Amino acid sequence: MRRIAFVLLLLVSLTSAGCAFSLAFVSPNLKLKITNVSAVPVPVPVNGESALTAKVDNPSGGKLTYTWTAHGGTMIGNGASARYLVGACCTSTDVVALVVKDEKGNTDTHLMTLEVLQPPDSTKS
Questions:
Q1: Are 37 and 80 in contact (CB under 8 A)?
Q2: Do residues 113 and 91 lie in contact, with contact meaning Cβ atoms separated by under 8 Å?
Q3: CATH number assigned to the domain comprising residue 45
Q4: Which domain holds residue 62?
């Protein structure tokens, strides 16, 4: 009982004197992960664009690098956000890839298929 009282007294005196500490446990199983990529609008009209946004779980809290690419269209990336521009290149779908890399070199990749709306066929009446 005396020992418990001493430990409590020590804790109270340390915290009241302004001394405090915290412990952070980082699990080795926590990895960089792209949790979601959204696009608005979907489907994307031909000769139009869509705004893409990524959500990433970054357990290390370090700086991330985002690389956006598209198979047929054009990507204009700005970190976790990007614009997808589509011309007449894409017949019905296009694939967008996002690679996220952290300061330690860990990466995660996400592929997304975007539907591309074609203009109505003006030769049909």
A1: no
A2: no
A3: 2.60.40.1080
A4: 33-117
- What is the Cα Rg of the chain in Å? 25
- Secondary structure E strands in the chain: 33-40, 44-45, 49-57, 64-70, 74-78, 81-85, 93-102, 107-117
The domain tally of the chain equals 1
Each residue's pLDDT tens digit in the chain (125 positions)? 444 433 333 333 433 444 433 333 444 558 999 999 999 999 999 899 999 999 999 999 999 999 999 999 999 999 999 999 998 777 789 999 999 999 999 999 999 999 999 877 766 65
- Max alpha carbon distance in the chain (Å)? 95
Residue 111 sits at the vertex; the CA angle it makes with 109 and 117, to the nearest 5 degrees, is: 155
